[in-house]
Amino acid sequence: MLTEIRDASLHARGRERIAWARRFMPVLGAVAGELDLTGRRVGLVLVLEPKTANLALALRDAGAEVVVTCPAGETDDETAAALVSEGVAVLARSDASPEQDRDFALRMLRQRLDVLVDDGSRVVRLAHAAGLLDGLAGAAEETTSGLRPLRVMADRGELRIPVLAVNDARSKYLFDNVHGTGQSCVMAALDLTGLQLAGTVCVVAGYGYVGQGVARYARALGARVIVTEVEPFAALRAHHEGFEVRPLLDACPEAALVFSATGVAHTITREHLGAMSPGAVVAVAGGVPEEVETGDVPPGVTVLADGECVNCAAAEGNPIEIMDLSLSVQALAVDHLVTHGPAMAAAVHPMPGELDERIARLKLRALGIGLDVPSALQREFLERGL
């Protein structure tokens, strides 16, 4: 079996943690139980931890041959060992160098995958650069920052495979980006520092869905939140939702905690870091390389997790119940690409609405929440278009 991990002896604890997460993932269980991926080869490039391990196992149980890889900073060695003990191929170790991470990804791509599930589109872009696209029916991308370069490639005519925009599914971004990343990033920063948020100034750079979540959770814990933006409608929305909005450089001197939630490189520059007061803490929520310029951090300013995604690199990631939704989207995306990918254009495609809605309905059912049904008169009104 194609495998390279740090320590296979860690499997017992990893299996316990995976089983714990599975208890709170009823939607993934329901979705995966209906899939038939017999004979298919699926590559997973996701933060390697107990929740995502359940996706790997669900796809394996549906008949797929699964290969998992992950950058070192997002690899949990216990989880990697547990997956290997379950017969899943894993190329990931927490002590890998960037060169090893790239080699792991190339080794996975050389397995002639049917579908690739990516995070940040790092491996999709590598597959294009290395010419390793043969047999690949398509890819699924789960992040805003990952879809951005793929859409640029599509516009330039450089994208060679269909990509499902998993991130743009409502059952993903309305919950994972806002409530999942919002909660986990704020809590990770507080756990790592031991600081109290109540009564302090928290600056959130970027008011997309992730930034909205971070701002809301920080305010709920008593912080005075300042939002910074480059996009006028996002800034206006933050203002109408009760947040102070200012330029980032103006807000930095007051900040006790600064979150970058843009997914854009060079958001927090050396100039911004230099404007911060001693004791200020900086964290990245979501994130891309160099979102915070960490090369010359002033004394007294702390950048958490070396500027990597703080909830994944230094904590446990998003809540289990939230990931139940996101990973269910991924499972259905894999099935859709296996069935329809060969006939789809080389472009970034939305997740089919009926699949997205199916996940929302399954989650409501698992929560015991009922829905009203439109009456005949209401349906007639809607059909007339009046």
Automatic annotation (TrEMBL):
Cofactors: NAD(+)
A GO term, aspect molecular function: adenosylhomocysteinase activity
GO biological process, one term: one-carbon metabolic process
Stored SMART domains: AdoHcyase (SM00996), AdoHcyase_NAD (SM00997)
Keyword line: Hydrolase, NAD, One-carbon metabolism
Gene Ontology annotations for the cellular component aspect, listed alphabetically: cytosol
EC id: 3.3.1.1
Pfam families in alphabetical order: AdoHcyase (PF05221), AdoHcyase_NAD (PF00670)
Enzyme class: hydrolase
Database matches in SUPFAM superfamilies: Formate/glycerate dehydrogenase catalytic domain-like, NAD(P)-binding Rossmann-fold domains
S-adenosyl-L-homocysteine hydrolase NAD binding domain ranges (all copies): 177-317
Gene3D superfamilies noted in UniProt: Adenosylhomocysteinase-like
Family label: Belongs to the adenosylhomocysteinase family.
PANTHER family membership: ADENOSYLHOMOCYSTEINASE
Protein name listed in UniProt: Adenosylhomocysteinase
